[in-house]
Amino acid sequence: MNIFQRLSKARLLLSQCEITKSGLNKHSNYTYYELDDFMPSILKINDEIGVCPVITYEDGLAVLTLYNSEKPEELIRFTFKLKDIVLPACNAMQSEGGKNTYAKRYLYKDAYEVAEADPSETPEATDHAQKTQATLKKEIVDAKASLTKSTKEAGFTIESVIKSYNKEQKKDAKTLDDIPVKMLVGYDQRMLVTIRAKAAEAKRALAKKVE
What we know:
Layout: H1 3-15, E1 23-25, E2 30-32, H2 35-49, E3 51-58, E4 61-68, E5 71-81, H3 92-111, H4 123-154, H5 158-169, H6 181-210
Antiparallel strand pairs: 1-2, 3-4, 4-5
């Protein structure tokens, strides 16, 4: 068999192995394959069919080269662009090792077609995204309602707020829906400051009349 036939055979044999996911992303609540989950099976299969894998690092890339053990001139290369990662409570050397391990995991997953669902498509991640979206929608509704009320109490109009936003941000917003929620909250705070200032002024005027 040539190297392509060997790799095709290796992928088939690996797909028939029972491998389980031991990695857990606690933030988004999904599981994934760690390197140790599938490497023992890959090493055994490589030995059986005559494939020798070699990992090298060059020009910002991690490179996995698969050789035909019987004909080393036959090879296939897979590459993965290295990215800096920061691991908690680790020194620079440990972070470098973690970066290489991360790249190695993706190289083998790519080469041997270790399939797993996209994290964004898992039920847990979808549920998390839906809850986040619902929260954001509520924040927008609440921010618009609060701003509408405070703007009226401050003696301004929604149109004046939109005009101010367009002038400051050099945008072309037509309604409050075109303004980011953080900006809505910011304008709401401005209106509240104006309301408090007007209340204080009215209080001083009243006190002056009493005198």
